[in-house]
Amino acid sequence: MEFAIKNIYNVLKPGGRVLFRDYGLYDEAQVKFSKASDKRLGDNLYVRQDGTMSYFFSTEDVKSRFEAAGFSTVNCQYIYRETTNRQKEMRIDRIFTQAKFEKKNCDGL
Q1: CA separation (Å) from 67 to 25, 71, 74, 80, 109?
Q2: Which domain of life is it from (predicted)?
Q3: What is this structure's pTM?
């Protein structure tokens, strides 16, 4: 992740912004993963049945990663959404981490 964020910083013009949105900590998917200990690869990192991985971000985690690369935080928050699976007639609480970061101007502004 560090490498990807640094690449974004390097190609972005001063004053440019990055919009970030991904799974938030304690999302319903993470709760389901945590019930199966064989799915956990590390802190907030899980493997799906198809072999792909899912990471669940806290707002503090996202801010520290982007700020370490030189970005300033415009905003960073959790977004709560309720989704409905009509076929299974179930409602699921979703949590996303959403943030906006800005590359500082060359003069530090």
Answers
A1: 19, 5, 11, 24, 15
A2: Eukaryota
A3: 0.82
